Amino acid sequence: MKRKINFYFDFLSPYSYVAWTWVRAHDYDFTYTPVSIPSIISHYGTLGPAQIKPKRNYLFKDLLRYTKMNNIPFTSPKNLPFNSLYALRLALAEVAGESQKEVIDAIFRAGWEHGLDIGSDDVLREILAQKGLSVDELFAKMEAREARIHLKNNISKALEQDLFGVPSFLVDEEIFWGNDSIKYLEMYLAGSDPLDHEKYQTFLSKHEF
Questions:
Q1: Which pLDDT belongs to residue 209?
Q2: Domain count, the chain
Q3: Which three-class secondary structure state does DSSP give residue 32?
Q4: In this structure, how many other beta carbons lie within 10 angstroms of the beta carbon of residue 107?
Q5: E strand residue ranges, the chain
Q6: What digits encode the pLDDT tens for the residues 62-117?
Q7: pTM (2 decimals)?
Q8: Is residue 118 within 8 Å of 107, Cβ to Cβ?
Q9: Considering only Cβ atoms within 10 Å of each terminal Cβ, which end of the chain, N or C, has fewer?
Q10: Is 136 left (phi over 0), alpha (psi -120 to 50) or beta?
Q11: What CA dihedral angle connects 167, 14, 82 and 164, to 10 degrees?
Q12: How many CA atoms lie within 13 A of 91 on its CB side?
């Protein structure tokens, strides 16, 4: 039986896009869960990577190296940062239904492959129409109060599970954070997790705060 993997992402996050290129290529039992990373960062009272200039500049170099080495098309959306809330609500399972994976893929590609403004509802309408999706129906659901509630619930549940960033993968009760954790996720799924649980508990007991 396939293990269930909850993939948390925000279209605002370039590493979420890079992780998505791995997700869409594999047939694990995924649940796709959009969350607002600014809301999560605010909860912990920390700064986002883009708010720390040296870190932002380093991460762009890292992304350019990684995508070049792995033949992943990569650019940046027309506006960065942008308001991703419309895109996130369109990507909700409760809004997109059976088209969820297609909606997510279309939005990620539009922004991070083609450099479009995926914070614009007009652009979102256009890219979804190009996929032959029912744009008016999707937007009607996205603009409804229920969609806002579902997105807030996603964020609340993520925080309850101690999620602190995206992309994140939740399997059982184990969190794998960041695109670079995918190799450990795969090992965990294969039953060969290198984590020394006893040593981990010792570290926690020594450094409680």
A1: 65
A2: 1
A3: strand
A4: 26
A5: 4-9, 29-34, 168-171, 174-177
A6: 999 999 999 999 999 999 999 999 999 999 999 999 999 999 999 999 999 999 99
A7: 0.95
A8: yes
A9: C
A10: alpha
A11: 30
A12: 26
For residues 129 and 59, what is the distance between their CA atoms, to the nearest angstrom?
33
Q: What is the CATH number of the domain that holds 38?
A: 3.40.30.10
Q: What is the mean pLDDT of each run of 10 residues along the chain (209 residues)?
A: 90 98 96 97 88 92 97 95 96 97 98 97 96 96 97 97 97 95 96 93 85
Token output for 191: 């039953």
* Alpha-carbon gap, residue 130 to 94, rounded angstroms: 21
Place of tokens 């650019």: 75
Distance in angstroms (rounded) separating the CA atoms of residues 23 and 42: 27
List phi, psi (to 5°) of 46. -115, 175
Residue 12 CB-density burial (10 A; 0-12 exposed, 13-18 middle, 19+ buried): buried
- Is the distance from CB of 40 to CB of 159 less than 8 angstroms? yes
For the chain, the farthest-separated pair of C-alpha atoms sits apart, in whole angstroms, at: 56
pLDDT given at position 50: 81
- Cα 29 off chain centre by: 16
> What's the one-letter identity of residue 85?
L
| Domain membership of residue 65 as a residue range | 4-206
DSSP state of 44: H
